[in-house]
Design brief:
Blueprint (H helix, E strand, L loop, with lengths): L1 H13 L3 H11 L8 E2 L9 H8 L5 E6 L4 E6 L11 H4 L4 E5 L4 H13 L5 H10 L3 E6 L4 E6 L6 H10 L6 H20 L2 E2 L8 E5 L23 E5 L6 E2 L6 E2 L13 E2 L2 H16 L5 E3 L5 E3 L9 H12 L9 H13 L2 H22 L1
Length: about 375
């Protein structure tokens, strides 16, 4: 037993952390990365709006507001519209991007790599993933900075959504959580099918998505998991590839930096990181709290929090058990999990219609709490 533990410790010592991996990618630079434009001048020579026009020539996007020291939201604004008069409600009907400045070479590399691999996926998965991933629309390198324009959402992150429900004295309706399980699992399927680990799925990196500018007519009230009748324009947006990993290059990495995996006895691996993070995000939506786990004698991991009596206990038990107890360094069948939730929601007209109702109420609440 001591020999086995020593071998585990040696393996852990040899595995690479995400920070070490990205530091290595930073050292490689960007010369071998396919970018849209390379300018031999410093970014500081441009105002942010000018940098946007350099990345997206003839663009109809205009800067709307600054969201952090290095990030800006831009909206697709018609020539006859005044951006100074646009508010949160108007932004609902416009395409949105983020303009990220001072991006690390490693982050841009992972962003571009995922974008390049999406077309190799099955058509149905590719189409849905392209709408649900905040990958680069355009990239530009300056002598002192990297600037990336990413697909974005004007809707709140899951973390802000949970906070909103808490202020209302409740949690997200179970059926709506199931809807987001379906949407986020499909998005994660695409990332993994592209041989990548996202590495940072959290309430801060997943956003509500409602692409109203893409809708042709009204969305049908009956939920459609295939995306028909404008349901393809509702879902999630997974952002931030600053901790992503190319599994083809790094099949195994260290979990020493993870908030749960080492305590679960998982010291290194691959997709397990995303599985546990996915479970944590859904736990946050369902319970309104961070995930707390217990480990039984058989070494299986379970939630410490009990499900409410009227919830679909069997489905949720299976969902969390699958994500928290995956085979070592192997992928689990996320599609099968997603299909189970799809069948449940579409198996009853009342449940299928409830999703539209809940989304409408949630949208109204988001406007109220953002005012």
């Amino acid at each position: 037993q001591q020999q086995q533990q020593q071998q585990v410790n040696e393996e852990e010592d040899e595995s690479v952390t995400i920070d070490e991996y990205h530091a290595h990618l930073d050292d490689m630079g960007t010369e071998d990365v396919q970018v849209n434009k390379r300018l031999p001048i410093p970014c500081i020579s441009f105002k942010v709006g000018q940098a946007l026009s350099q990345i997206l020539p003839q663009t109809t996007f205009k800067l709307w507001k600054q969201t952090s020291e290095t990030s800006f939201l831009a909206l697709e604004i018609a020539e006859d519209e005044d951006e100074d008069d646009i508010d949160e409600e108007d932004a609902e009907y416009m395409q949105c991007i983020t303009l990220e400045t001072n991006v690390r070479p490693s982050t841009m590399r992972m962003n571009v790599l995922l974008k390049e691999r999406l077309p190799t996926l099955p058509q149905a998965l590719q189409t849905r993933a392209e709408a649900s991933l905040g990958v680069a629309l355009a990239t530009c390198t300056f002598t002192n900075s990297i600037v990336v324009a990413n697909h974005a959402s004007v809707k709140p992150s899951f973390a802000k959504l949970v906070s909103m429900y808490a202020k209302m004295g409740t949690t997200m309706p179970e059926a709506l959580v199931m809807f987001y399980v379906i949407e986020l699992s499909r998005t994660m399927e695409a990332v993994h099918a592209a041989s990548m680990v996202h590495g940072n799925i959290s309430g801060e990196t997943v956003y509500v998505r409602n692409d109203m500018y893409m809708m042709d007519g009204d969305m049908e009230s009956l939920y459609n998991s295939k995306g028909a009748n404008n349901w393809i324009h509702q879902g999630v947006l997974l952002t931030d590839f600053s901790k992503s990993i190319d599994v083809e290059e790094l099949p195994v990495h260290s979990f020493s930096d993870h908030y749960f995996l080492p305590s679960m006895g998982r010291l290194q691996g691959s997709f397990e990181r995303d599985y546990v993070d996915f479970a944590g995000v859904i736990h946050m939506l369902l319970f309104g709290t961070s995930m707390d786990l217990v480990q039984e004698e058989a070494a299986t991991i379970h939630l410490a929090t009990a499900f409410r009596p009227f919830w679909q206990k069997d489905m949720w038990t299976s969902f969390f058990f699958s994500l928290l107890n995956p085979p070592q360094q192997e992928q689990i069948d996320i599609a099968a999990i997603r299909t189970q939730f799809e069948n449940h929601l579409e198996g009853s007209q009342a449940r299928a219609e409830s999703i539209s109702t809940y989304l409408t109420k949630q949208t109204v609440s988001m406007m109220t709490f953002s005012a």
